[in-house]
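Title: Comparing notes on inverse folding

I've been comparing how different people in this forum approach sequence design from structure. To keep things fair, I'm posting one structure and asking everyone to reply with a full sequence. Here's the target:
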């Protein structure tokens, strides 16, 4: 059985020279699937949103022309100005120039307003930019999570492909044995060693095995057809190098630390907290009084200048205080939500760890069963050759070898998919 399996694998490799490892499979997905092209476009959109968040720092140019007639005296004036918000300080700079033919003036005015309490150091003006900067990191993590979910589903298909290959290999081997046994049975019948009933039993067994082989061939062909389209490769290039029977050996030493510090869910939760903390900083500042220092200068009347302070404060300040309290509540809620997420991750990772341990024990029992089944098949065949057994017992023993090997492969599929799911939970899939 092992020799036949090795030969079958070698044959498949010779036919499909471009066997795909898990890494190669994922790379082909990233390079060919529209899902990842959409992600790149989403990333560009997020960057554009960040750039747009600094729109309040753009220079704003303005101009006006006026013409008036008073007491048959026509006068004209023109104004051009530029305004800019200096977000890093919260200040506003206004520069304007006025021309008037009525008063023959050409006046340049410069005004600078610096907030000292509310919006000091631009804490409110920079809010949109700071939040957009955090949003870039949030969107990146969300894209990574989406990519992980998508790739996990596709890797399940890679595991299914390995199983379909294994299933066809086992079916081919069983069909070869059945054909040999049928040929041998017919020879014995012609020599009057066995009855016609034995031949019919062997022919029925061969047809049953052939049906299983055809079904296995169909399963593999359909899966290869699907993956060839998904990966944009020829159907002949679709062959999995994923080892169904390789046991997972890279269990983290401290699972709790891995979940808390390295998973995308926890990183995302911390960034969401950072958004509310930054919002909280502005909300606290917004409860303060509006105290502005104003500096002005003009070239009129020998370069006049002025300096002043402006103070305003809404009595009660109800809206600002209400907004502040809402943000504080939101921050407290998200901290509790983060703790809940960590709890859910811990439960899921713990359950999967136990599941892998039990599946490993199950795989070991299948290895023992395969040895027993092969020994039984060999013993039944020898007993039959000595005339101490029936052909139906030989067929049953050979079918049992095939069935146990197939069940072993099916258990291995469950194990490998659980490994992939576990890696996704602890963020070690990609």
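Reply #1:
Here's my take.
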């Amino acid at each position: 059985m092992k020799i036949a399996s090795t030969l079958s694998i070698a044959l498949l490799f010779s036919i499909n020279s471009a066997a795909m490892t898990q890494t190669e499979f994922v790379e082909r997905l990233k390079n060919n699937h529209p899902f990842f092209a959409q992600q790149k476009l989403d990333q560009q959109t997020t960057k554009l949103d960040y750039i747009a968040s600094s729109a309040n720092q753009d220079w704003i140019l303005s101009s006006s022309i006026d013409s008036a007639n008073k007491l048959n005296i026509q006068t004209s004036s023109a104004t051009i100005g530029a305004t800019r918000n200096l977000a890093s300080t919260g200040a506003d700079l206004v520069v304007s120039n006025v021309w008037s033919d009525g008063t023959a003036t050409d006046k340049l005015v410069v005004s600078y307003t610096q907030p000292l309490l509310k919006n000091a150091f631009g804490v409110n003006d920079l809010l949109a930019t700071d939040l957009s900067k955090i949003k870039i990191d949030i969107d990146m993590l969300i894209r990574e999570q989406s990519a992980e979910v998508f790739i996990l589903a596709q890797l399940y298909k890679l595991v299914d492909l390995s199983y379909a290959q294994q299933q066809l290999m086992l079916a081919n081997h069983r069909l070869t044995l059945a054909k040999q046994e049928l040929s041998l049975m017919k020879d014995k019948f012609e020599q009057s060693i066995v009855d016609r009933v034995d031949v019919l039993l062997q022919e029925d067994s061969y047809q049953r095995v052939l049906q299983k082989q055809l079904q296995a061939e169909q399963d593999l062909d359909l899966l290869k057809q699907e993956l060839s389209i998904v990966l944009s490769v020829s159907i002949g290039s679709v062959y999995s190098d994923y080892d169904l029977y390789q046991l997972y050996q890279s269990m983290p030493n401290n699972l709790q630390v891995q979940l808390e510090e390295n998973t995308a869910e926890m990183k995302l939760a911390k960034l969401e907290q950072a958004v509310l903390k930054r919002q909280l900083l502005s909300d606290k500042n917004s409860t303060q009084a509006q105290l502005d220092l104003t500096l002005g200068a003009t070239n009129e009347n020998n370069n006049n200048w002025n300096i002043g302070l402006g103070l305003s404060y809404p009595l009660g300040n109800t809206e600002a205080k209400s907004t502040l309290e809402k943000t504080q509540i939101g921050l407290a809620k998200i901290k509790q939500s983060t703790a809940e997420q960590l709890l859910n991750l811990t439960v899921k990772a713990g359950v999967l760890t136990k599941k892998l341990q039990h599946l490993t024990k199950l795989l070991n029992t299948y290895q023992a069963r395969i040895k027993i089944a092969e020994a039984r098949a060999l013993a039944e065949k020898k007993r039959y050759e000595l005339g101490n057994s029936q052909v139906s017992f030989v067929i049953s023993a050979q079918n049992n070898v095939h069935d146990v090997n197939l069940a072993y492969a099916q258990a291995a599929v469950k194990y490998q998919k659980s490994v992939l799911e576990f890696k996704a939970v602890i963020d070690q899939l990609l």
